[in-house]
Amino acid sequence: MYYPEPISKLIDSFTKLPGIGPKTAVRLAFFVLNMKEDDVLDFAKALVNAKRELTHCSVCGHITDQDPCQICSDHTRDDALICVVQDPKDVIAMEKMREFNGRYHVLHGAISPMDGIGPEDINVPDLIKRLKDDKVEELILATNPNVEGEATAMYISRLVKPSGIKITRIAHGLPMGGDLEYADEVTLSKALEGRREL
Amino acid sequence: MYIEHITLTHYRNYPSLTLEFDPKVNVIIGENAQGKTNLMEAIYVLAFTKSYRTSKDKELVMWDESYAKIEGTVFKRNYHIPMEMQFQSKGKTAKLNHLEQKRLSHYIGALNVVMFAPEDLNLVKGSPQVRRRFIDMEIGQVKPVYIYHLGQYQKILKQRNHLLKDLQRRKTTDITMLEVLTDQLITHASEILIRRFLFLDLLLKWARPIHQGITQNKETLTIDYDTSIEVEKTAPIETIKQIYQETFKHNQQKEIDRGTTLYGPHRDDLIFYVNGRNVQTFGSQGQQRTTALSLKLAEIELIKNEVGEYPVLLLDDVLSELDRHRQSHLLNTIKDKVQTFVTTTSVNDIEHQTIQTATIFHVDNGQVICEERREH
Ligand SMILES: Nc1ncnc2c1ncn2[C@@H]1O[C@H](COP(=O)(O)OP(=O)(O)O)[C@@H](O)[C@H]1O
Ligand SMILES: [Mg+2]
Ligand SMILES: [Zn+2]
């Protein structure tokens, strides 16, 4: 099938998004052609701004448009609790259920020797630094319940243990081998209640 | 249990095919390269989600087509259970009762299949992988949680081997991570080992009398599980874990030097003895075949005992490989109780009452014709 170049490029861009195959990309591209010009401009701006104006919080690593992020600069939150997650999406999932009032630390990945990802590659050194000068009493390890997430949790636990900080792992209610972002809010809040000490 | 019907779409050399099966014996006749094995393979894939002939799912899809589908209904405990496997470039999906199953361990086991192909006559003589695959498949379909442990074990093993390579080449010096992966590996290694011990004990219980029957009480079969660690077969799981811990701790440097994991279920093997002598090294071809046959027949009884129903039996090109005596032993075992699929190039190769009353299918280049049932 031949498409004029601007459409081909648009189709190509849509295929880069997760979950979008060639057929859907074509449909979306043609949908965009029929949108009002203002809407298309807003859409394009939103895409660019999301990328340009967002950075990673220098304290916790969460995505933010201010540094430190809103969560880190919120004085009503409990400094004694840090919840360690793999991905910014996990912070958003936890925040949605509004039951956790501590701080976060976003690793941006999990340790995986196979993929050449070691502890230094995923924000672990920053976490260790944070634990030194903070009033942290408990670390909740909410990495994904798959092989790499488990290994990362066990690794952090071994590093932190000598400091005497209490370490717990989100354990129950999560589908084994599943990713945290797929867990619904009910299972997630159960998981938080049932955390076990490592 | 038995398969009531099967529908293939773009599967190997079958563009589109629906067959109703006989609850007892189905004989599939055809020249070479017409699609007999493909049909058996389709049933196997419906049960296990993957082929025994290839690890590349893509090969199951008919050339120049984009997907392959196998649908079937299984009659089991008075229910008609629809099952479906579909393969496409993006991956495969498994459906049970029309619902997609995300985890293999929720799917495998719905249809129990025992396969006996010429390769299986190699069970005794072949490489350790052949024997490990045999126990893994058989335990997996009776105890689905075993598949979960096996899957986790393989993932961790891959990570651990990568880390050991990195340590060997001094790309990292992080022993803490090695300890973490060792702990993870041990958790699943112990679950696998304890289930293998239990399974082999059961298997031998069924296989020994069958083996004695075939050999007219002249031979006694024994199975030994050869582990990479020193452990009693009756040890509780805590002891197994502890022994693994000590073994890994003791051999840490050795594993780093070699850059790979040297202990664990992936290094274990089975050894078969007849009258106290190792069949693999000292047995005649006949003794090796009898052993393989006894194990397969034992599996049928074991599954019946564990699951409550007989599995489906697939005999691909194997009857003609067995002598009359072993043939009739096999056919007497399945008689009237096990749904069986037999392939052959000619029925004349097989003389037995079971076959004479079977439903016959003729395969010709991806087309199948069911022969009208002969009146007796
Ligand atoms: N993916 C495929 N697409 C089309 N034909 C295939 C595919 N894979 C195998 N075949 C064909 O299937 C035939 C082999 O069928 P098989 O069942 O092994 O034969 P047999 O009847 O001897 O057991 C061959 O003719 C081969 O070319
Ligand atoms: Mg064949
Ligand atoms: Zn922050």
Automatic annotation (TrEMBL), chain A:
GO biological process: DNA recombination; DNA repair
The keyword Nucleus is annotated on this UniProt entry: no
UniProt key word Repressor: no
Domain Toprim: from-to ranges: 80-175
C4-type ZnF: 57-72
Swiss-Prot/TrEMBL keywords: DNA damage, DNA recombination, DNA repair, Metal-binding, Zinc, Zinc-finger
Superkingdom of this protein's organism: Bacteria
GO molecular function per UniProt: DNA binding; zinc ion binding
Family stated for the protein in its record: Belongs to the RecR family.
Physiological role: May play a role in DNA repair. It seems to be involved in an RecBC-independent recombinational process of DNA repair. It may act with RecF and RecO.
Listed name of the protein: Recombination protein RecR
Organism: Halolactibacillus alkaliphilus
TrEMBL record, chain B:
Subcellular location: Cytoplasm
One matching Pfam family: SMC_N
GO BP field: DNA replication; DNA synthesis involved in DNA repair; double-strand break repair; SOS response
Annotated keywords: ATP-binding, Cytoplasm, DNA damage, DNA repair, DNA replication, DNA-binding, Nucleotide-binding, SOS response
Stored InterPro entries: DNA-binding_RecF, DNA-binding_RecF_CS, P-loop_NTPase, RecF/RecN/SMC_N, RecF_2
GO terms for MF: ATP binding; single-stranded DNA binding
Listed name of the protein: DNA replication and repair protein RecF
Residues in RecF/RecN/SMC N-terminal domain copies: 2-365
Chief place where the protein resides: cytoplasm
HAMAP family in alphabetical order: RecF
Binding-site residues for ATP, renumbered to this chain: 30-37
Family named by the database record: Belongs to the RecF family.
Gene: recF
NCBIfam families (alphabetical): recf
GO annotation, cellular component aspect: cytoplasm
Biological role stated in the UniProt entry: The RecF protein is involved in DNA metabolism; it is required for DNA replication and normal SOS inducibility. RecF binds preferentially to single-stranded, linear DNA. It also seems to bind ATP.
The species this protein was found in: Halolactibacillus alkaliphilus
